[in-house]
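Q: Here's a chain of 421 amino acids. Please give me its 3D structure as tokens.
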Amino acid sequence: MSDSSLRHRKGEITLTVRGPGGQPLADRVVTVAQERHAFAFGNIGFDFVDLVGGPGPEESTGVESFGGDSQLDLDRLGELWLDVFNTATLPFYWGRYEPRRGAPDTERLTATARWLAERGVTVKGHPLVWHTVQPSWLLGLELDEVEQLLRARVRGLAGGFAGLIDTWDAINEAVIMPVFANGDNAITPLARARGRIHLVRLAFEEARAANPAANLVLNDFDLSSAYECLIEGVLEAGVRVDAIGLQTHMHQGYRGEEYMLQMLDRFARYGLPLHLTETTLVSGHLMPPEIEDLNDYQIPHWPSTPEGEARQADEVERHYRSLLAHPAVQSVNYWGLTDRGAWLGAPAGLVRTDGSPKPAYEALKALVRDEWWLSPTDLRTDPDGTVTVTGFLGDYTVTAADRTACFTIDAPDTTATVDLS
């Protein structure tokens, strides 16, 4: 894929570099370095919760979960994770976050979010409203009470974490929510009785009321016309959606660039940013194609193989290149760093169970931190103290002698003045 396909991801800025007394630093060597991508390269941060926050509530041990099973210590996990990613999704599944009514797992999630934020990571919460991984204490309650509790949960999370977590999957998998039949829960009956759009409005409006600065995502795995119909209905109903979330768990094989482009174009027509919220590609054998619900394929041992790892590396690179080439895509979130404790036991991680990076990890890191990155580069200012910098949209530093200033490339062609006095 040619570099021109990523033109919309890059910008050029003309800096005027000033020194003591505001005088331009003419004919001086300055060092420019990228510090952060504007694009959201994400991964889940589930494994960090136990390592940073300690063990979870005793009542949560019987609730469905994945992640949090890494054999890596915090330093090594952090090193691998932070070398590639800048956006972390943390788990707020109701059944695990509040397994006992009135006793949410706030302290551990707050500590984890702060640990990530202190390292320059943008933190996202997942999800505010979903029908799966629900607390058993909701069962048997009247619909009105369930809705009141759900509204309080949304307000409590969006408002309570405001400033620390400002991006949320506001509602997850609303297309199937009213007809979900794989286990009892209290949310499906509510959605069936009051409708999908009612639940979407509840999630978005309660969250936005609690945190007006929130960035709220409508997220789904159903990429059929049913999701398009839901989006159209939600927008026509006047619900403000900040981004459309698209899940692409590809346990049955990479769907290919042509499929992805057509799918992205279909959802880009709504004029909203697209977030690839849940992406996986396996490094072992592929799940049989006749499986309709990925949850129905869970086997005792699903190993990563050398052949599978080579395939995964190739597909990860192709997948990310094609996604960044599409101007509507704002975020890509890979669903798991390591194979240990991975969703459905699939070898979909970028790191093996023993903690060693797979070829897919190295391939993605080479894109994010090398090909799509401006390493420290020496440039010389002209007689007016100006220098032109071209790079991927994001945050940068410029250094002369022992003084450093920050600047941002946030548009294709901009100017700025930096002060090194």
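Q: Can you summarize the key feature?
A: Residues 306-325 form the longest helix (20 residues).
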